[in-house]
Amino acid sequence: MSGVTRLTIATAEDMEALGRRIGAVLRAGDLVVLRGDLGAGKTTLTRGIGDGMGVRGPVTSPTFVLSRVHPPVTGSVPLVHVDAYRLADACELDDLDLDFEGAATVVEWGDGLLDGISDSWLHITIDRGRSLGEPGSRGEGDDDGTPRDVEIAFIGPRWEGVTL
Question: Which CATH architecture best describes the domain 11-112?
Answer without folding.
Answer: 3-Layer(aba) Sandwich (3.40)
